[in-house]
Design a protein that fits this description.
alpha/beta; seven-stranded mixed sheet; six-stranded mixed sheet; 32% helix; binds ligand MGD; binds iron/sulfur cluster; binds molybdenum atom
Length: 736
């Protein structure tokens, strides 16, 4: 029997459409779906590895329970009973805050997880919620929340129409783009050049993206905030007026020149490592480009001035008149979002961490503070940890201390497809099905896409196994006190019914006043996540409003369009987006302005000349977890220390031999790769490596272990957002 299935790839934010050939219930071949409305046949080497990930003998298919230091298979009943028992004991004795949860990156790629997390976190009723956001894009949420009123109102570069792109700390030739869903990002950049436009890359390394750029600016790590403010300073010297479409929508414009005054291109040059003339040149090009966008990613976020840099990116988009216009930086409009959004201004600090008092942001505390919450005795100490689709032992700072803290926990549960560096510490591991056994809709990344589109894929293979939605809702039921026998269906039904009831009671809802039973019945008898999704789509801004607009969007319509539906280029929509108290863009938010003296001080102090460590991503890896796929691992060693030839000579390093790299937090030994494609004084180790740990069960990954770069990150943070500093870490380097 032969058939072809179409499915979105969940491995990175590009969210490419895949065409999957199946013969006799086995995957024969996976290639790019040429008819997909966004990716048009593009695929990277990881996309076809969904086959190997599905077939991987090391992938967990049943729960495992740890006994005498070893994991053994267990039934779901036994696993849930143990969790219910230990949860009860720990929270009865120590209270709810004794339990913590860490949410990893794949949660954002699985819509059923996103839907189940809300009831799950609510059921835990702990303030100790942590996620990969605080080792990633949290500074952008904070700057967007402060400037536009909502942490998800993040402008994306209008890649296909811009004439000038200033890109900082991003390497889409390897990462395929982030907070900018644009499958085949490289071709889109090439087309930008073909139509006479330019792109400039700011990165301490001459990445593949930088090598294709019209200009590479080799900045010092951690210096982007100062560089961006220097550009703003130079532009403001010309006393520009705000563009017409922004004139009545901005607060704080007049205050900018004084705030930027300390950060001239000349004053910042020693700190940034960028000549004042270069900075002024970029300012000039940016200000005069017909359509331009500034875009910053990991290298601008995971640094000591991450929020300031995120803010400065959008300050530039505003003062050059490029925010919310074609070819500039625009706000996507995903289909599952309603046209009316309550204007509740963004707040931070609704609660605080117990040990160092970090404020809550978007419902979370910074994961850099999880270690102290686990090891500091006293009321509220974290004694139980649940990790959901995360590998924090490799991906969060100060890994040695982190793993030691895990060993000190009373109880740990992981929901994960592998027994890996993190889940090896867990008392119980619950495995969800593999990607090919689950359906897909992009709840997260359609919000950051360069075109508005929607697609849905059903599971490629049916499975008897519990879906991840069921697992998470079952845990929610257990944490709500319904015990291990609780029926997840009841909770799921209750949650959807309440959501419908709340919606029909809202005066501004497209289904205001309708009968909730009629709405629930209209959603049919699909699995719960699908019913939830259909509900969101139908009340969404393109929805059929349950019959009121017969041509409107429904899940059924998406099912009939397996290559997705394109809703066209992004449209200006600032008025819909703005949710600040003033109803205007806040150009000078207090938390950022009051932190500028710290940046001024760093600029004044300059550099001490020591080595600085940065990370990097690689096309054939997806964060820390796809290293068990042999076809992605073959070839030359990838986990290496990139060093400039001058530095290699200075530090006595030999290509191919090991170097010892040490920081305040720890040290690693790693093979040296000498390359001129890196700024002198900067070294780079890729992240996501460090496999082969005792008790993990990933044979291929163990054979290509590499080292964990987060042994070197010391837990320091960007003080505004609490995001971890993972780039620009002071290190010493020498032969091992
Ligand atoms: N030094 C340094 N550290 C970094 C970064 C860096 O650039 N440098 N980058 C940061 C960034 S951007 C991110 S996003 C984080 C990522 O941090 P994490 O989210 O902690 O790490 P991942 O490697 O994505 O791990 C995903 C985990 O989920 C499991 N998994 C995969 N699919 C599924 C699924 O469908 N369901 C479930 N339940 N489990 C699944 C995998 O086996 C793995 O254990 O790392 C951050 N850490
Ligand atoms: N192949 C692959 N694709 C991925 C992932 C993956 O692991 N592998 N992960 C996915 C995830 S979770 C994310 S968040 C995205 C991230 O997507 P990107 O942001 O594009 O990620 P990186 O490739 O890590 O690029 C970061 C760049 O910042 C540079 N850099 C480091 N420090 C600084 C600095 O201080 N200033 C500047 N200007 N640059 C600096 C680094 O040299 C690096 O080239 O990628 C996603 N896509
Ligand atoms: S670019 Fe990303 S979404 Fe596309 S095939 Fe590769 S991993 Fe999958
Ligand atoms: Mo990420």
């Amino acid at each position: 029997m032969e058939r072809t299935a179409f499915r979105t790839c969940p491995l990175c934010e590009a969210s490419c459409g895949l065409e999957i050939e199946i013969v006799d219930q086995r995957v024969k071949r996976i290639r790019g779906d040429r008819s997909h409305v966004m990716s048009a046949g593009f695929i990277c080497p990881k996309g076809s590895s969904l086959k190997q990930l599905y077939e991987d003998p090391d992938r967990l298919r049943t729960p495992v329970i740890k006994e005498d230091g070893h994991h053994r298979p267990a039934s779901w009943e036994e696993a849930y009973a143990l969790i219910a028992d230990r949860w009860g004991q720990i929270t009865d004795q120590y209270g709810r805050d004794a339990a913590a949860v860490y949410l990893g990156n794949p949660n954002a790629h699985q819509f059923e997880n996103s839907l189940a997390l809300r009831p799950l976190i609510k059921a835990m009723a702990t303030k100790n919620v942590f996620s990969a956001s605080s080792v990633d894009q949290l500074p952008k949420h904070v700057s967007a929340g402060l400037m536009f009123g909502h942490p998800l109102s993040i402008p994306v570069p209008d890649l296909d129409r811009t004439a000038y792109l200033l890109m900082l700390g991003a390497n889409p030739y390897e990462s395929n783009g982030s907070l900018c869903t644009a499958p085949d990002f490289p071709s889109r950049l090439e087309r930008l050049q073909e139509r006479g436009g330019k792109f400039v890359v700011v990165d301490p390394r001459r990445t593949k993206t930088a090598s294709k750029a019209d200009r590479w600016i080799a900045i010092n790590p951690g210096a982007d905030a100062a560089f961006l403010l220097a550009i703003a300073n130079a532009i403001l010297e010309e006393r520009p007026a705000l563009a017409d479409h922004l004139r009545h929508r901005v607060d704080g414009f007049d205050a900018l020149p004084d705030l930027m005054a300390p950060f001239t291109p000349e004053a910042t040059a020693a700190f940034t490592g960028v000549d004042a003339a270069v900075t002024r040149g970029v300012a000039n090009e940016l200000a005069n480009a017909e359509r331009a966008a500034v875009y910053g990613r990991i290298g601008t976020h995971t640094v000591a001035f991450g929020t300031t840099a995120s803010w400065a990116v959008d300050v530039l988009n505003v003062i050059t008149g490029n925010l919310d216009r074609a070819g500039g930086a625009m706000f996507p409009y995903p289909s599952h979002i309603g046209s009316q959004r309550a204007r509740r201004p963004f707040v931070m600090g609704r609660w605080h961490g117990r040990v160092s008092g970090r404020p809550e942001i978007i419902g979370e505390l910074p994961v850099a503070s999880l270690i102290e919450e686990m090891v500091t005795p006293g009321e509220g100490q974290v004694r139980m940890l649940l990790t959901l689709a995360g590998n924090p032992a490799l991906t969060t700072p100060n890994s040695a201390a982190f793993e030691e803290a895990l060993e000190g926990l009373d109880f740990m549960v992981s929901v994960d497809v592998y027994l890996n560096e993190t889940s090896r510490h867990a008392d119980v591991v619950l495995p969800p099905p593999s990607a090919l056994e689950r359906s897909h809709y992009d709840l997260a990344f359609t919000g950051f896409s360069v075109r508005d589109y929607a697609d849905y894929s059903p599971p490629v293979f049916e499975t008897e196994a519990a879906s991840e939605f069921e697992i998470l809702v079952k845990l929610a039921a257990i944490f709500s006190g319904f015990g291990p026998e609780a029926d997840p269906d009841l909770l799921a039904a209750g949650a959807l019914t309440s959501a419908i009831q709340a919606e029909v009671q809202r005066g501004d809802s497209p289904i205001s006043g309708r009968d909730p039973t009629e709405i629930l019945e209209a959603l049919g008898d699909r699995p719960w996540p699908e019913r939830n999704l259909d509900f969101l789509l139908r009340i969404g801004n393109r929805g059929d409003h349950f019959g009121a607009l017969p041509d409107g969007l429904t899940l059924e319509k998406l099912e009939g369009n397996p290559h997705g539906i394109d809703f066209g280029p992004l449209q200006p929509r600032l008025d819909q987006v703005l949710a600040t108290g003033s109803g205007r863009i806040e150009l000078t938010p207090e938390p950022i302005i009051s932190d500028l003296p710290r940046l001024a001080q760093a600029v004044a102090q300059g550099r001490n000349g020591g080595a600085m460590l940065v990370g990097r991503r690689q096309l054939r890896s997806a964060n820390s977890w796809t290293h068990n796929v042999e076809v992605l691992m073959k070839g030359r060693e990838r986990c290496t220390l990139e060093v400039h030839p001058d530095d290699a000579e200075r530090w006595g390093l030999v290509h191919g031999e090991k170097a010892l790299v040490a920081s305040a937090a720890g040290k690693v030994e790693v093979p040296v790769e000498i390359t001129a494609d890196i700024r002198p004084g900067v070294v780079s180790i890729p992240y996501g490596w460090g496999h082969g740990r005792l008790g993990s069960a990933m044979k291929v990954a163990a054979a290509y272990a590499g080292v964990n770069v987060n042994f070197l990150s010391d837990g320091s943070i960007d003080p505004i957002s609490g995001n971890a500093v993972l780039n620009g870490i002071p290190v010493t380097v020498g032969p091992a």
